[in-house]
Design a protein that fits this description.
With 713 residues, the protein is α/β, with parallel strands linked by helices. The protein folds into two domains: 11-221, no CATH class; 277-706, Alkaline Phosphatase, subunit A (3-Layer(aba) Sandwich). It contains 26 helices and 14 strands. It has helices spanning 3-11, 15-39, 49-71, 75-103, 109-133, 135-141, 143-155, 163-186, 190-193, 199-206, 208-221, 277-282, 287-298, 335-342, 358-368, 380-384, 393-398, 417-423, 448-466, 489-493, 495-501, 507-532, 559-564, 602-609, 679-699, 702-706, and strands at residues 315-321, 345-347, 350-351, 405-411, 427-431, 471-475, 539-545, 581-583, 591-593, 597-598, 640-643, 652-655, 658-661, 666-669. An eight-stranded mixed β-sheet has the order 5-4-6-1-7-8-2-9, with helices on both faces. The protein has a four-stranded antiparallel β-sheet with strand order 11-12-13-14, covered by helices on one side. The longest helix is centred in the first third of the chain and has 29 residues, at 75-103. It starts with a helix and ends in a 7-residue tail after the last helix. 48% of the residues are buried. Mean pLDDT is 89; it is low at 235-262.
Amino acid sequence: MTKQEISKLLNKRSLRAQILSALFFPLAILYHELILRIFDSEFTSFFSAGLIITVLFSLAGGLLISLLLDVIPNKKVSRIIGIVLIAAQTVIFCIERGCRSLFGLYFGITTVSTMTGNALGGFGGFVWSGFLSIIPFFLLSLIPLAVFIVFNKVIISDKPNDGAVRISMGSAAVVCHIAALLMSLFGGAKNYFTYDFTANNAVPNFGLGATLRMEIEYAVIGIPEPELGGYIESNTFSEQSNSSDSEPAVDSENSEDSSSVSEEPKVYGYNQMNIDFDALSAQTNDKTLKSMHEYFKSLSPSQQNKYTGMFKGKNLIFITAEAFSPYFISEELTPTLYRLTHEGFVFNNYYQPDWTQSTVGGEVANITGIIPSWINGKWASAAAANDYMPFTIANRLSALGYSTPAWHNHTYNYYDRNKYLPAFGYDYKGAYGGGLTIPSEGCWPESDLEMIEATVDGYTDDFINQGTPFSVYYMTVSAHAEYNFGGNDMAKKNKEIAQAAYPDASEAVQAYVASSLELEYAMEHLVNTLEEKGIADDTLIVLTADHYPYALASGNTDYYNELRGFTDTELVTSRYKNSLIMWSGCIEEPIEINTPCYSVDILPTLLNLFGLEYDSRIIIGRDIFAENYDASEYSSCMPLVIFANNHGQGNSWITAAGVYEASTGIFTPNEGITVNSDYVSRVNRLVEGKVNYSKLILSKNYYKSVFPQGFEP
């Protein structure tokens, strides 16, 4: 053996050492993915197709990192890069675990970076409590970093791997990646890999590492548009427009037996505009827009009814209440909220789904009548802020001379409210430099009562003295988490009252009730002001939640079940049942509404109540009062509550016929209802279409393409 051959042999590492060092990064990534999956057992089944895909993507990504670090000549540089990568990986996994613990969601890195400054500046105590809740995960996640620090010179040796080992590493990475890619593109979660991609949907199905890669890729090329075929079909129930052979709707309040009166029953028209969808299709080469025009043309409009125009010319106060839930309301503790939820219109079957977008998702649903989706990794509100939104109630009423002020009693530009609320038609002011000043600035959270006290006299006096009608919007904050008596100033303020009312409850429930009492006091002041000034009959109050108080369900104990007195999980529709308040002094007796409805239905319902022209086909929600449907029959204008991609389980839904739970794949019909064998499959297609076209309305600025010159009321 020559001297050169001996030297070469001495410089070589054993094959075993090379393999072990090559596997460190794949195993480190996989370790983080597995503990993330284990800690997420409430939402994610550990053993599923998603586990196999996650393993394959982790091995592929880790092998690629090992290979790249091995080929860098300067091993000190390789080790520095290695420790940075492992540390960054640890931080990212801990952040995502914290998001899942606090919000029940995984967020994209873009969203996390946007939220971080807001969160730390706005409610650092809430974030700190979230960190405390993930300490076990945090400690476990440090193990790969500790191993690398101790053994970095072994993992990245001064002696490089053999060429054959490098080829094997590269080949294995390619094979694993292709296998995972094929399973992702053709498996049951393929929509989450493409057009339905969000971090919350992707992480359980593909792993956090693959999710980060997709987020970067889609930030550059854009998220693929959904496949739009198969959503247009004829309906078994009459899909009428204004044809002469349609069954007229009868005004049930005024109708009597035909033998006693000779008057014809009242025939109602439809909430439908003269939109030439065929002409719009002919004017564009965009295949997606063509499909949208064809789809919306195929839908049935909702029919007007006895409530159409009931509040024409009257005032509106619209409130999105932070973490509102009806389960703390009682006649003794919250007399005003009890009154508002038991008088006026009483909606017995109302829901506020989880839109995976925290408060802004609820706001978009409430205000726009569109299912909020992630648009290229951003909140739906970010897309809507740049769109033409002619049908929001503020934009419609401001064109008729209404004042449209809006207020929020926390940081005015939080979630970029200063951008999207003006797009929705509001003259917006918020706290901390945004034009609203209240005494509780500096507290967390701030007082809803103080916000009402600071603002209500302005617009009510303008109406009384100058005749200026108003369409007001409030976004409250007092019931925001965290729910304890240490970090929540509104909970501390009302602590004694809540503890007296709930003496045996946990601190979390007591604190939630205490903070929610501030909304009760705000509504008491608001209603008293309207009644004292004699304008309660001229004003409609609308109030609903942005989301249920999900922070009560974070951690190891689901305190929301304690508050309500029954048990379910976030995977089922009952978790999202809530209250919709529509109250006015002019409604003398409660009007019970049992129709299934949800937050996306609020806008078209208000447009109908205020007698405003709109086209119900191009708003995803429906007028709750429309009656042109048969409960047992499929139709595109039937009541439909959609829980879009509920925690990665698929689309759950509720109709007048029954409930479909995506987590089980089971449809349960209501008592006395029988549906056709294809009912569930047809509704599933309808639901999928509404979810996809909601996203496209915002991403394609669809209303601008329908009304290129603007819309004149």
